Amino acid sequence: DLHGEELARCARMLAARGVNLVRLHGKVFDERTGELDRAKVKHIREIVAAMKKEGIYSHLSIYFPLWMKPKPGPGWREGYDGNQHPFALLYFEPEFQAIYRSWLSAVLFGDGALSADPAVFGVELVNEDSFFFWTSSAKNIPDPQLRKLEKLFGNWAAKKHGSIAKAIETWGGMEHPRDGGGRLGFRELWNIVNERKPRDLDTAAFLWETQHGFYQETTGWLRGRGFRGLVTASNWQTAENRILGPLEKSSYASGDFIDRHGYFGCSHSGDNAAWSIRDGHSYRDRSALRFEPEKAGVPKVFSNPVMDTEINGMPSMISETTFNRPNRFRTEAPWVFAAYGALQGTDAIVHFALDSADWAVKPGFFMQPWTLMSPTQAGQFPAAALIYRNGLVREGAMIADFALPMDDALALKGSPMVHAANLDELRKADLPEGGGVTSAVEIMDPLVHFVGRTSLRIGGKGESLVLDVSRWIDREKQTVTSETGELFLDYGNGRLELRAPGAQGAVGALAASGTIETADLTIRSSMELGAVVAVSLDGKPLRTSERILVQVMSEEKGTGFATESLPDGRERITSIGTDPWLIRRLEGEIRLKRADVASLHVTAMDID
Questions:
Q1: pTM
Q2: Residue 370, helix vs strand vs coil
Q3: How far apart are CA 494 and CA 499, in angstroms?
């Protein structure tokens, strides 16, 4: 927790590296009772003010079910034992909703109100929760609370069909052991997704209406109170994104943009691996540019957290993402997000997580998997931020635009545009044994996201459009070229080339690539893994620019970090290492193809 001059220094550091948006992600309440913590509210306002001074917007995220373990009590706490999280409770429990609104009121509308402060980019209503994820189950919702939800379902079904008895008759007589007393029980999400019986379709419709209704009512309440920033509903995955994803995303429609989360994991395992890195843990180094899977010896997995689809014409954001430590291929991350985020028209990207304002290998009591203040992450931000924020890589054309009627979404017919969940280890723990979060059926070639933009119109009318991508995707050569011609991915070798007028270079397997030629650069390097990128600072193409930033990075590791190889292709950590960060020796040659190159002045600007 930074305050005063330390906080101001952090804000200056972020601004200097090209950051213009931070997400303030933390609770403002007691985890047992929900009682407001005014000190945390005060700290949010202090952070917003410090960031504002440096020209940085703040996005507020104050509720996440994992931050709460309600102690036994009456009303909304009935049935909780102090160990369970209140998954899905906020969508239907009125008393809890009132407490939740009191938190938002304190943050936005109390003394020193932030509701009209232009530095407040927006508010996220719920972090990583949904009726359509595995955590929404009888196992996670205590019986007294589940009965409330079942009663609401009973009322809904009776209104739709005339009575509960007629509803069950319409469902072909399908009953549930928890039916009774005006209540209707819920079948497991696995059954709903895979069997799609009439009862399942009504269940999905009820859950969608309830979840959508909460977001709509809360957004309306914020607007009515005078909040002038943006509102986003949530950012979560579902138990089966092909079938349930359209319902999840369309439930967010009352907000101003669509948000989501995604991580590039490294098969990290061991005690408390969900949130820490320790001696004895194991992991696998894997390259995103080669689409390497988390498990060795299996085919490439064409998934990446940067893959983004426009939903219903709304802006999009990725508010949590990173390449997890200790994967040596983290070097690729800033370029994947900057280049392909720009190509796809992604409107905001927030890297997770800033756990220190210093270059610390182990910033806190434990070493966590998401450290942002490292050489390959924040260390590469300056050029990456220029590419993304200044549009040095152009937004691509619409390559695939699908219309999915709302009736089809509610009938659980599924979407042709499917994204893998890309969960971090923390939320993988919520998957059932043998369960997953994506379908084996992917109707749309996932490599389309590396060609240009994609869109899904849920409830949309008109024809779908899918361009022939064979001219840009060469499966035999294992290459993808963006339709703009500015990005070239060799996913066989693991190399990304930037070929835009104002941003050129190469990232990934440099040594294996030999001499790399772009329009204005020649690059040679013996680095097995590295990034060499040049960007214009004055808005002119590199061939005429008078101010160019050339940025080079290799690999990072903590001092003393050591591993031993395992038979399954993974590494076991024998020492997590300590400060300071080390980077592999930088080596190579960069030639600028300009007649006036001899007259250009070079100034060294190292990480500090």
A1: 0.95
A2: coil
A3: 16
Work out the burial of residue 224: count CB atoms within 10 Å of its CB; fewer than 13 is exposed, 13-18 middle, 19 or more buried: exposed
Q: What is the 3-state secondary structure (H, E, C) of 533-582?
A: EEEECCCCCCCCCCCEEEEEECCEEEECCEEEECCCCCEEEEECCEEEEE
Give the phi and the psi of residue 102 in degrees, each rounded to 5.
-65, -35
Q: How high is the pLDDT of residue 444?
A: 85
pLDDT of res. 438: 43
**How many other C-beta atoms lie within 10 A of the C-beta of residue 601?**
4
The dihedral of CA 175, 177, 181, 183: what is its sign?
negative
Q: Say if residue 498 is exposed, middle or buried (CB neighbours under 10 Å; 0-12, 13-18, 19+).
A: buried
d(Cα 117, Cα 104) in Å, to the nearest integer? 15
Burial grade of 401 (CB within 10 A; 0-12, 13-18, 19 or more) = buried
Other CB atoms within 10 A of residue 45 CB: 18
Q: Calculate the alpha carbon distances from 2 to 44, 195, 196, 521 in Å.
A: 11, 51, 50, 42
User: In angstroms, rounded to a whole number, what is the distance separating the alpha carbons of residues 524 and 549?
Assistant: 18
End-to-end C-alpha distance for the chain, whole angstroms: 22
Instruction: Calculate what percentage of the chain has a pLDDT beyond 90.
Output: 92
**Do 497 and 485 form a contact (C-beta atoms < 8 A)?**
no
Kind and range of the H or E element at 195?
helix 189-195
The Cα 323–Cα 305 span in angstroms is: 9
Q: How far apart are CA 31 and CA 24, in angstroms?
A: 18
Neighbours of 595 (CB within 10 A): 7
User: In this structure, are residues 395 and 342 in contact, taking their beta carbons and an 8 Å threshold?
Assistant: yes
Calculate ∠ Cα 303-306-307, nearest 5°.
Answer: 60
Residue 435 has pLDDT above 60, yes or no: no
The total of other beta-carbon atoms located within 10 Å of residue 586's CB is: 12
Domain boundaries, the chain: 473-599
Please report which residue ranges of 251-380 form alpha helices under DSSP H. Answer: 333-344
H/E element holding 258?
A: strand 258-264
pLDDT value at residue 14: 98
